[in-house]
Amino acid sequence: MIPVLSVASECAPLIKTGGLADVVGALPHALAAEGIETRVMLPGYPSVMTACAPGDPVMEEAGLFGGAACLRPATYRGLSLYILDAPHLFAREGSIYLDAEGEDWPDNPERFAALSWMGARLAAEGGEDGWVPRVLHCHDWQAGFAPLYLREMGAAERCASVMTVHNIAFHGFAPAERRHELRLPEEGWRPEGYEYWGRISALKAGLTSADRITTVSPTYAAELTTQEFGMGLEGVISERSSDLAGILNGIDLDAWNPATDPAILTYKTHRGKARNRAALRAELGLYDSGGPLAVVVSRLTHQKGLDLLLEALPEFLEAGGQLGMLGSGDRRMEVAWQEIAAEHPNVAVRIGYDEALAHRLIAGGDAILVPSRFEPCGLTQLYGLRYGTVPVVAQTGGLADTVISANDAALRAGVATGLTFSPVTAPALGRALSRVTALFADHEVWGRIQRNAMRHPVGWDVSAAAYAALYHDLLRDK
């Protein structure tokens, strides 16, 4: 067994704000079948400390960015964990990243530098429980300093490091004058290191220090080398292209299983969707229009492209389509969608997040819409495939890698699993929605697309094998 320490700011089902948590929580189970023993290091948020009841410390640090801290082992639903118990950094109310006013916690650089530091220390020294990782796997900017710290501790020759980019839009910036407080080496303060236009970038620290870089789909890996998608880091990514791999995310097939899902009226074939659609319409207050019921489960942000849907939606509604939405985010977008729902009896909007409702939307919808301007991998389209809810997605990132569009050739070959559209504009989305309406009217064709979708592999098996191969390859050099 290869011991791997996975360092991340969130992990489902313990603590989740987005898809990062799903990946960090699901991948260890799949890796176990590949001979990889993964332990996940997480911050000791109040909810995590309560849920896990962690054990005695295996590593302590008297002064970790303003206070005493320790690592405590824990297990939760089959996951092996190390919890960073640092009350001065993590024992606070509100979001894990934002204060009550919705602003970043001002000490976020220190909070996640602490997570990175303790991850690197455990990788370098091992804990008092005798467990010593051979690979340090770091996720997004919150763990970005860890590969750099590992090198500074002199352990990079023994322990390999991997930096996974789930979303390059978030750098983890800090002012230049805090680099000494953050224990960053002065020689790294240069354009080839962690410096980004006069600021510290935690993500760039990881990208320039880790042995390998991965991201969550092959198309997104290619996109990151371009100015359009690289968010200012395309040069760094391009220089390290030989160390870059795009490995698709999977989903937890037990948590997302229409045959056993406790949140829905269970079904094993696409024919079971009718009961769930009727139940969902009743829950949302929608009548049976006879047309397709499209659903959205998403953050309401510019990235997710739901402003494009606002523009494209009227024609879809006029053709008999309906929309059920669950999401939260940008306040102006929340208000805009609430206003649309108030004006249109064929639109139902729920602001917030409700996991059970998300399952019911995906089980009851005919199509799931993902019009993202960019999407590293995307998980909701994978949930849609699993439940026979036809994905309608922008031709970008992992969306392009996971959906076979229902063009004439794919329909003739019998392989279509959804619809894609390009460019990512409201008119192109509108044309895709018109295509949904037309295809839905042909029950035989629509049913074939649904069956193909439900057969499409969306689990972690292939991806876990790719990560295991990456770890083995890295350790051959150590």
Question: What would a concise description of this structure say?
Answer:
The protein is 38% helix and 19% strand. By secondary structure, the protein is of the alpha/beta class.
Query: What is the terminal-to-terminal distance?
Result: 16 Å
Shape, principal axes of CA atoms: globular
Tally of individual domains: 2
Instruction: Please bin the fraction of helical residues.
Output: 25-40%
The number of helical segments is 18
The CATH architecture of the largest domain can be named as: 3-Layer(aba) Sandwich
Please report the first level of CATH classification, the CATH class of the largest domain.
Alpha Beta
- Average per-residue pLDDT, rounded, comes to 96
CATH topology of the largest domain: Rossmann fold
Our Rg estimate from Cα atoms comes to 23 Å
User: Strand sequence of the main sheet, in spatial order?
Assistant: 3-4-5-2-1-6-7-11-12
Per CATH, the superfamily of the largest domain is: Glycogen Phosphorylase B
Sheet having the most strands: 9 strands, mixed
Give the strand content: 15-25%
Structural class given helices, strands, pairing? Answer: alpha/beta
Catalytic activity: [(1->4)-alpha-D-glucosyl](n) + ADP-alpha-D-glucose = [(1->4)-alpha-D-glucosyl](n+1) + ADP + H(+)
GO molecular function: alpha-1,4-glucan glucosyltransferase (ADP-glucose donor) activity; alpha-1,4-glucan glucosyltransferase (UDP-glucose donor) activity
Protein name: Glycogen synthase
Keywords: Glycogen biosynthesis, Glycosyltransferase, Transferase
